């Protein structure tokens, strides 16, 4: 049985590996939101940014991509993802069922936010999120670039996210 990874944020546009298949997929029980303070990749200790995470919410669902990993690359991909995603232990690695657009259900490696972690910041108003994203920069570049790339890729996949679309426009306006 192949290994699958669920992508909902930067994994959509920068997976860091070459998937053998990409299928639109839906994860029930979680919402995509800017609910994680970023002190490494898209912000700093002095000026934290915000990154997307899957926030567990009954009745919610997140649509993204299921990325299939080549059998001979499973170990290296998992090691890479753990180094990338578990840098501050704010994410929890879970194997969760995702429903593929073709009707199949597969178990996928999924990174969800630990709501008890100090970097969890769920529930911030969108306007506050926009101002944080507009000013933050981290080791991987400007927080705004992360937002714009993710929003654009979701739109390109036909999976536009209302909040991300609004945030992308608002951050552009703030930055002039």
UniProtKB/TrEMBL annotation:
Gene3D superfamilies per UniProt: Gamma-glutamyl cyclotransferase-like
Pfam entry (one): ChaC
EC numbers on record: 4.3.2.7
Molecular function as annotated in GO: glutathione specific gamma-glutamylcyclotransferase activity; transferase activity
Keywords: Lyase, Transferase
Domain of life: Bacteria
UniProt key word rRNA processing: no
Cellular component annotations (GO), alphabetically ordered: cytoplasm
Keyword Transferase attributed: yes
Broad enzyme group: lyase
Single Gene Ontology BP annotation: glutathione catabolic process
Protein name: glutathione-specific gamma-glutamylcyclotransferase
Species, as recorded: Pseudooceanicola sediminis
């Amino acid at each position: 049985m192949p290994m699958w990874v669920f992508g909902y944020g930067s994994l959509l546009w920068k997976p860091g590996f070459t998937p053998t298949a990409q299928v639109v997929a839906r994860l029930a029980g979680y919402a995509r939101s800017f609910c994680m303070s970023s002190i490494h990749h898209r912000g700093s200790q002095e000026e934290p940014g915000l990154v997307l995470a899957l926030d567990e919410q009954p009745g919610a669902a997140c649509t993204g991509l299921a990325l299939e990993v080549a059998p001979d690359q499973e170990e290296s991909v998992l090691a890479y993802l753990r180094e990338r995603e578990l840098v501050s232990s704010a994410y929890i690695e879970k194997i969760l069922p995702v429903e593929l657009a073709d009707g199949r259900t597969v178990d996928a490696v999924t990174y969800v936010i630990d709501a008890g972690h100090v970097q969890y910041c769920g529930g911030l108003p969108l306007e506050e999120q926009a101002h944080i994203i507009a000013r933050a920069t981290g080791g991987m570049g400007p927080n705004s670039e992360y937002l714009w790339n993710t929003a654009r890729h979701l739109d390109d996949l036909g999976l536009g996210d209302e909040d991300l679309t609004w945030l992308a426009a608002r951050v552009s306006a703030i930055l002039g």
